[in-house]
Amino acid sequence: MTDAELDPYADGSLPSWAQVVPPDARSFQGHRAGFITRFIAASADFAVVLLILGMMYAGWAILLFIINPGTFSLPSVSLALVLGAAGLLSWLFFTAAWATTGRTFGAKMMGIRVVSFEGKVMRLPGAAIRSAFCLVFLPGLFWVIVSHQNRSLQDTVLRTSVIYDWTKRAPAKEAKSPHGKHDESSDA
Amino acid sequence: MAMGAVMASGRAARSTARAAGRLAAPFVRVAVDPPLVPYRWRPISRLERWGRDWQDQRGSLVRSSVEAGTAVAADAAEVVLPLVDLTPLVNGVLDRLDLDAIAASALDDLDLTAVVDQVIDELDVGDVLDRALGEVDLTEVVVEQVDLGEVVDKALDDLDLTQIVLTRVDLTAVVNAVVGQLDLTALVQDNVDLAEIAEQVMDDIDLPQIIQESTGSVASEAVQSARLSSVNADDALSRFADRLLLRRRGRGVQSGAALDGELTAADADAQTSDGAEDRS
Question: B218: which chain A residues are within 8 Å (Cβ-Cβ)?
């Protein structure tokens, strides 16, 4: 495999999506992102989830205070409830983000995007499966360090990619054509 | 007192003469115009003929008298003037004259405007000017007598040419006229290397950067800096891991074709091999 085959834009002709990318970032635009960037993005996303959980807890407490101010005390929550709520919220959060624009808050902050094997935004089922897989096996992200193509365990199994994408425009939605399904199933 | 005596004597003489005239008048009348004498023999007829002759000849007599007087005066002047030094005489007269008062009085009496109007009416100014200009070479006179450089410098110093042009010249009309006569497109095409300019402009301005800033597609410079640092850290970590794993080839991280919606054979091969490697 030659360099020209690896990089279709090695002759200097930039595709339209790269025209709005700053010069410094054009060299890696569209490449699969490395571990550090993805880890920071994931950390930011979990911070957002925790923030939302905290706000929900505060909202619940305020609601209880309004209902019965006389006997109000901060509601106690079990660890299982916290983990369950965090998992559910994270699953919804990641699924919605990856199925719409392909990027969560942390991904947007770090300039990365989750795309399917076609280079397009994932469809809802794929996003839901990937989200659940990521939450169930968090250490899968570390596979990026050793992967030959900067893919996490989830990426490898589900044939997705997390790419550097500093553009604002989201790539096209993954088509529901039988052709795509056929490719996916056959490759799998 | 003396004046009173003179006036009284004058009045007395006049009344005496009047009384004498009154007494003598009838006798004089009879003597001059005696009755019973044919008219042509009367003295009055001779007196009346003399009166008529005088009236007929008075004009010619006065003229001849004046001419004779003038001739005599001229002759006398020719004789006398060389003998007389007129300068002190005239100076003495001028000293005694109040010329300012005389001039003021004359100017008061004169209606200068009317005089000038009359002169202008009677003068054929055009003819006078034509004759004067015909006899004078004005160009030569001006060139020889006038320091034209100094005149022009003085005029330019006194004038604010910029302001004059701005206020007096319809610049829009001038520019429109000039532009209307020029084929600007042909001029630019003939004299300007548009391709070079366009290339230079494209080099000077970072169009993608401008588009990016105008659309706000990427966050602030701080975020860009953080992203770039993170990407560099990714590269460093990948190189470190590859060195530990004794990999000689770099990682196959390109997925640009996939971004455009086309999965190239090369990318598919890479994915397949990666998948096999990962699974192994």
Answer: 21-22, 111, 166-168
Largest Cα span, chain A: 75
Please state the pTM of the whole predicted model: 0.46
- Give the closest-approach CA distance of A23 to chain B in angstroms: 8
Instruction: Tell me the H-state helices in chain B.
Output: 2-32, 43-80, 86-96, 99-109, 112-122, 125-135, 138-145, 148-158, 161-168, 171-181, 184-191, 194-204, 207-215, 221-244, 256-259, 265-279
The structure tokens 């991904």 sit at A107
Facing residue for A36 by CB, picked from B230, B258, B262: B230
Question: Tens digits of per-residue pLDDT, A76-121?
Answer: 889 999 999 999 999 999 999 999 999 999 999 999 999 998 888 9
- SS3 of B180, please? helix
Q: Which residues contact B199 (CB under 8 A, 6 or more apart)?
A: none
Which of B259, B269, B279 to mutate against chain A (most A CBs within 10 Å)? B259
Nearest to A125 by CA among A82, A95, A86: A95
- Give the number of other Cβ atoms within 10 Å of residue A52's Cβ: 15
ipTM of this predicted complex? 0.78
| C-alpha span between B81 and B83 (Å, rounded) | 5
What single letter denotes the amino acid at residue B189?
Answer: Q
Residue B89 tokens, joined? 């005489």
